[in-house]
Specification:
By secondary structure, the protein is mostly helical. It has 6 helices and no strands.
Length: 183
């Protein structure tokens, strides 16, 4: 159980770190993220800038809390709360027919869709088990845990990099399969 929670923390910390650094790496990335919030939330630009700042600070804070051995539950709770907000925004966007890129990781992002809802729910599901497990079992043991950390980091990088690619490939395959069945 200890290794599972450690893997979850590393996985989520990596995802949130990629999102955080993707947005703060260059001012143009932060401006693009702010513009996407402005469009998605249909709020004034100044409010969107404030919301973007709060999200970026939240992502950075979640990353640090997930990495530090002292506050793992706080990091998991913050990650779950941020992801719940993201799910709500995407649901509102999809239902409202607002087609905008999320800019979740700072650069070009995916269009808001049900696949993005699933992505955020998967990430949220990764945070929840650690919230109910005894926090004393979450303390890292550096030498033993290196393989767990490396695997979690690799999985997180692959998830961030290839989730949207996999969804697009599945949708193309599904459309092709449906076209063949109708034809």
């Amino acid at each position: 159980m200890i290794h599972l929670v450690l893997a979850q923390r590393c996985f989520l910390a990596t995802v949130f770190a990629v999102a955080f650094f993707g947005k703060v790496r260059h001012i143009s990335r932060f401006r693009q993220f702010t513009a996407s919030i402005h469009k998605l939330a249909i709020i004034p630009e100044r409010t969107a800038r404030y919301a973007a700042s709060v999200i970026v600070v939240g992502e950075g804070t979640a990353t640090v809390l997930l990495i530090l051995p002292f506050f793992p539950r706080a990091g998991l709770a913050l990650a779950a709360a941020l992801l719940a907000v993201f799910v709500g925004v995407v649901i509102r966007s999809v239902r409202g027919g607002i087609f905008a890129e999320c800019r979740c990781f700072g650069g070009a992002g995916a269009i808001m869709s049900n696949a993005m809802i699933v992505r955020n729910l998967l990430l949220m599901a990764c945070a929840i088990p650690g919230l109910v497990i005894d926090s004393a079992s979450m303390v890292m043991r550096p030498i033993i845990d290196i393989p767990v950390v490396v695997c979690a980091l690799g999985a997180a990088v692959a998830f961030v990099r290839y989730y949207d690619v996999a969804v697009r490939a599945l949708l193309v395959r599904r459309r092709t399969s449906s076209a063949h069945q109708q034809g």
